[in-house]
Amino acid sequence: MEELVNLNRRELLKTTTGLLTGLMVAGSPLAMMARGRAWAVDLTALSSPEGVALMAMARTIAPHDKLEDAAYAMVVRAIDSDASKDESACKMIREGLARLGPEFPASAENERVAVLKKIESSAFFQMMRQKTMQVLYATPLAYAYFGYEGEAFSKGGYLLRGFNDLRWLPEVPLEDGGPMPT
Amino acid sequence: MKRIDMNDSGAVVIIGSGAGGGTLAHELTRRGIKVVLLEAGKRQSTETFSQVPGEAFAQLTWLDARTQSGDWGVGRDFPALPVWHCKTVGGTTVHWTASTPRLQPWEVRAKTTYGDVAGASLIDWPISYNELVKYYEFAERRMGVTRRNGVPGLPASNNFKVMYAGAKKLGYKQVHTGHMAINSRAFDGRGACIQQGFCVQGCKMGAKWSTLYTEIPRAEATGNLELRSESTATRIEHGADGRVNGAVYRDSQGAEQRQKARIVCVAGNAIETARLLLLSSSAKFPQGLGNSNDQVGRNYCHHITGFVWGIFDKPVFLWRGATLAGVVEDEVINEPKRGFAGGYRMELLGLDLPTFVQVGLPYGWGRDFASIIESYRNMAGMFINGEDLPRADNRITLNSAVKDDHGLPVANVHVNEHSNDQAMRKHAQGQMSRLYQAIGARRVVVGPTPPATHNMCTARMSADPREGVTNGWGQAHDVKNLFISDGSALSTPGAANPTLTIVALALRQADYIGQQMKAGNL
Question: pTM of the predicted model, to two decimals?
Answer without folding.
Answer: 0.96
